Structures are given as C-alpha cells and as structure tokens.
UniProtKB/TrEMBL annotation:
<feature type="transmembrane region" description="Helical">
    <location>
        <begin position="20"/>
        <end position="40"/>
    </location>
</feature>
<feature type="transmembrane region" description="Helical">
    <location>
        <begin position="74"/>
        <end position="93"/>
    </location>
</feature>
<feature type="transmembrane region" description="Helical">
    <location>
        <begin position="275"/>
        <end position="297"/>
    </location>
</feature>
<feature type="transmembrane region" description="Helical">
    <location>
        <begin position="339"/>
        <end position="357"/>
    </location>
</feature>
<feature type="transmembrane region" description="Helical">
    <location>
        <begin position="144"/>
        <end position="162"/>
    </location>
</feature>
<keyword id="KW-1133">Transmembrane helix</keyword>
<feature type="transmembrane region" description="Helical">
    <location>
        <begin position="304"/>
        <end position="327"/>
    </location>
</feature>
<dbReference type="Pfam" id="PF05684">
    <property type="entry name" value="DUF819"/>
</dbReference>
<feature type="transmembrane region" description="Helical">
    <location>
        <begin position="250"/>
        <end position="269"/>
    </location>
</feature>
<feature type="transmembrane region" description="Helical">
    <location>
        <begin position="219"/>
        <end position="238"/>
    </location>
</feature>
<keyword id="KW-0812">Transmembrane</keyword>
<dbReference type="InterPro" id="IPR008537">
    <property type="entry name" value="DUF819"/>
</dbReference>
<protein>
    <submittedName>
        <fullName>DUF819 family protein</fullName>
    </submittedName>
</protein>
<keyword id="KW-0472">Membrane</keyword>
<feature type="transmembrane region" description="Helical">
    <location>
        <begin position="46"/>
        <end position="62"/>
    </location>
</feature>
C-alpha cells in the first residue's frame, strides 16, 4: 500500500489528493473487503516503534545553529504563524463542539500546523489518541482543507496587491545559495545503518528518561531534545548522510495505512463538519498573525508565504514554493523554519492538550 501510494503520488491526480490519502483510502477499502484486519499486533508495532523512529530520523536535520542563522527574517513570520495556530486551535476548541476528543484534536492539529503531518502522529502517540476513525477523520480534513489553503496561498503569492503591500526588501529573491544548489547524494547502506542506529538510540534513551520521571507518554519530548542535540553537535558529520528521510517517510506511510485499516467510515463522516469548521478557524487566525508580523517587522510577501507554508505543510512544501516562484534566496530559510516546526510542534501539541484536557 505504501508503494502504491508513493507511486500514484507522482501522477497528476495523485499530486492533487496526496499519497497519504491514497494509502488511507486503499487501506479502508481492503479492510472493509476483509483482505486486511482492522486490528492486529503489527499495528501496535507501528505505533510503538516505527512512529518514534520516523520522528527521530526526520530530526537528524534539526541543527539549531543552522536553523537560527539561516532562517533569518523568515523565522519572525514563522513564530507569528505558529502562535496564530496555537491561539486558533484553542479558540476553536472553545467555540466549537468537537465531541469527546476536543483536547486531542486541538493537540494534533496545533502540532501538525506548526511543522507538518509528522507532528500529527507524534502527538497522537504521546497523548494516547489511538482511535483510528477519529484520527483518520482528522487526516482527511487536514488533507482537504490543507490542500485548499496551499492552493489559495499559491494563487495569491505573486498577486500584485499582495506584493505591493509587503514589498520591503523583496529585491534579490532569485539569488541562488550554495546550500540550496547542492545535489542530493544517493544513500548507502552505511548511511541508513548510522541514521537508524542514532534514531533507535535516541528513542530508547528518551523512553527510558520519560519512564524514570514517571511520565512514560512524554517519551517523544525527550526523543526530540536528544535528536536536536545530536543534530546540532554533529552537524558537520551528519551533513554527509543521505536517505534517512526515505526511511522515515516509509514508516509514516505505514502509520497512515494502519489508520485507514482501523477507520470506521460512519464515524469519519460524522466528525467531518465540525472538524472542517475547526481547521478553517485555525487557518484564519494563523493568516491574521502572519500578516500582522509582516506589518510589524516589515517582512516581504515571499517571506510571509514561505513561513506560512512551512507552518502548515512542513519543509517539503515550503521549499517547493520557494522553487516554484523562483525565490532561491529563501530555499534554505524554508528548510530551516520547516525543521524548526518539527522540533517545536510536539511541545505545542502536548502543551495545548494539557491546557484543554479536563
């Protein structure tokens, strides 16, 4: 299923609906036909081991020095956008009826819109949010509304009115940077072994530390801190590794396949209207804060677009927008702010959950 989803994502239709949604839909279909089970011991293995490993692997690039130095002015807009997500998620949980999973939805959506869908799985695991139907409903809404948001951002990114109101320091956006021009290297067996070894070490240590203080569900926070420390202290050495993102992506595809297999279609449809309104509200507050930051700190239209897409979609989407519009100078800040979102998103989600949980 992961292979099929990844392959179809290369097609025009697949790019519109995303490989994740293809995997979830295929898993739901096969589960309803009785080809795969709705629950199985291997699903627990995915939750317990593969999801934390995927998070740790993605964080191998979370070098704090590079993120702060290379993120530049874009980090200001990113911080404002992340704050808008948190306030929007809190406000939505207060004014909308999200049912018994109100705090859980606020946690996973605030996390995923602070750095991408990786944080969705991480925070769901940390707070024990394991209802497949409820999680699949959230992923479906995230994909539909999130894709719509990115399409709108893409449409207005170079609009004359938007550029005119946020035109400060917008000259030279097309200048290339050395980091963005580097060609990716083909991964080797040694690369994958080192990456998996470091990730596994961080996961084992993080879980042990969380258990030692009596908070075993918070292992993901310790894992995040450990991986950031490894990525920062070993940034020159780790820069030569390749392929860890492929392994992490495969693990995440398996996670979404597991969600689809256990999802109940009726529950998913029942949750859709409230979640749709909830995500729209989060986006509205997010945009308001990003635009306010643009005015206060005199940021240009490209910096605001990259910061917003880094929040909502993560590094791949932000970099894609930088390349699409020829903003070569912002390719590295796009990666830096997106990876920073991976780091802080878990803390944001858990913090909001503890704030809202009864």
């Amino acid at each position: 299923m992961a292979a099929i989803g990844a392959a179809l994502e290369r097609t025009p239709l697949g790019r519109r609906v995303s490989g994740v949604m293809i995997v979830i839909a295929l898993a739901m279909l096969l589960a309803n036909l009785g080809v795969i089970p709705r629950a199985a011991p291997v699903y627990d293995v995915i939750w317990t081991y593969l999801v934390p490993l995927a998070i740790a692997l993605f964080l191998l690039r979370a070098d704090l020095v590079s993120m702060l130095v290379e993120g530049g002015r874009t980090l200001l807009a990113f911080a404002a956008g992340a704050l808008g997500v948190v306030l929007g998620a809190w406000l939505g949980a207060r004014v909308l009826d999200l049912g018994i999973y109100e705090a859980q939805y606020a946690a996973v959506f605030s996390a995923t819109y602070t750095g991408g869908s990786l944080n969705y799985a991480a925070v769901a695991e940390a707070i024990g949010f394991r209802d497949p139907s409820a999680l699949a409903a959230g992923v479906a809404i995230d994909n539909v509304v999130g894709l719509g948001y990115l399409l709108v951002v893409g449409a207005v990114a170079n609009a004359a009115l938007f550029r005119r109101h946020f035109a400060w320091r917008s000259e030279g956006l097309g200048e290339a940077t050395g980091a963005s021009a580097a060609a990716p290297r083909t991964p080797s067996l040694i690369d994958l072994a080192i990456a998996l070894g470091l990730a596994a070490l961080a996961c084992a240590t993080g879980d042990a530390l969380a258990a030692a203080i009596g908070q075993p569900s918070y292992g993901i926070l310790f894992i995040t801190v450990i991986m950031v420390a490894i990525a920062t202290l070993g940034r020159r050495w780790l820069r030569g590794l390749a392929g860890e993102d492929l392994v992490a992506t495969l693990f995440m595809y398996l996670f979404f396949a597991m969600l689809g297999a256990g999802a109940d279609l009726g529950t998913l449809l029942d949750a859709a209207p409230a979640l749709f309104a909830y995500v729209l509200l989060v986006f509205l507050v997010h945009v308001a804060f990003v635009l306010l930051a643009g005015r206060l700190f005199r940021l240009n239209h490209a910096e605001l677009v990259i910061a917003s897409t880094a929040c909502i979609g993560g590094p791949p989407i932000a970099v894609a927008f930088a390349v699409l519009f020829g903003w070569r100078r912002l390719a590295v800040p796009a990666v830096a702010t997106g990876i920073l979102g991976y780091v802080v998103g878990n803390f944001v989600g858990l913090g909001l959950f503890n704030w809202l949980a009864p």
